[in-house]
Amino acid sequence: MAELTLYIGNKNYSSWSFRPWIALTAAGVPFREVLIPFDDDGGNPKFREISPTGRVPCLHHGAFRVWESLAIIEYAAELFPVKGIWPKAPADRALARSVSMEMLSGFRGIRNACPMNLRRPKRRLDLAADVQAGVDADVARISAIWTELTARSGGPYLFGEFSAADAMFAPVVNRFDAYDLVSDKAVLDYMAAMKAHPAWKAWETAALAESWIVPADEA
Predict the structure, then answer these.
(1) Strand 32-35 versus strand 58-61 pairing type
(2) Where is the GST N-terminal domain (predicted)?
(3) CB of 31 closer than 8 Å to CB of 199
(4) Phi and psi for 39 in degrees, rounded to 5?
(5) 197 and 203 Cβ atoms separated by less than 8 Å
(6) Which of 88, 90, 193, 215 has most Cβ atoms within 10 angstroms of its Cβ?
């Protein structure tokens, strides 16, 4: 099999890169990582050389390319069906895909107001009332997803074992933490389990060592 190469952006900021990286790493899928840092608010012109969208992440498998986080995760799951990237039970897989798609397509309030930033000291933002309302609605829905699924599975992850669904929500764990958005014990317990995962710790260690600063993501 040709080597998999995953192109990513800055580990401190690139939430979309984090998702497939942690999914593949946690599952033990072998791949080569190539990090191309953002050089300005618009990304990096070099992204156009490796991705048809001009964005990261992008996975190269020989001459074949797959882009968008969830598509990369799905492709890896098909290449390595024994790695358990998605839950085993059909009902669990359907639920995992449902909440992953919800994450993919929604939660604009928290995305826009609270960029992923692993170096950010924990503190709340002083937001306009309408912006805060959007963040609060997203926090409530995401908290409900995490609470319901961990209660259903017994935890510590959404479907018991770490899966693609956890990978899709990984950047939100940082957002909840960095912007001090939650106090519910069940939510905090899930966040603690995520932050203790070896793949999370490996990504975080590299993120904290980066020197690049993107002002737009320094909320």
Answers:
(1) unpaired
(2) 4-84
(3) no
(4) -105, -10
(5) no
(6) 193
Q: Report how far residue 29's alpha carbon sits from residue 201's, in angstroms, rounded to the nearest whole number.
A: 17
- Delineate the domains of the chain, giving CATH numbers in brackets: 4-84 (3.40.30.10), 90-202 (1.20.1050.10)
SS (H, E, C) the chain: CCCEEEEECCCCCCHHHHHHHHHHHHHCCCCEEEECCCCECCECCCHHHHCCCCCCCEEEECCEEEECHHHHHHHHHHHCHHHCCCCCCHHHHHHHHHHHHHHHHCCHHHHHHCCCCCCCCCCCCCCCHHHHHHHHHHHHHHHHHHHHHHHHHCCCECEEECCHHHHHHHHHHHHHHHCCCCCCHHHHHHHHHHHHCHHHHHHHHHHHHCCCCCHHHCC
pLDDT tens per residue across span 154-190: 999 999 999 999 999 999 999 999 999 999 999 999 9
pLDDT, average across residues 109-122: 97
- Structure token digits, residue 5: 């190469």
CB–CB of 125/219 below 8 Å?
yes
Entry pTM? 0.96
**Largest distance between two CA atoms of the chain:** 53
CB 199 within 8 A of CB 11: no
Closest CA to 98 of 156, 57, 55, 141: 141
How far apart are alpha carbons 121 and 13 in whole angstroms? 14
Residue 41 confidence (pLDDT) above 90: no
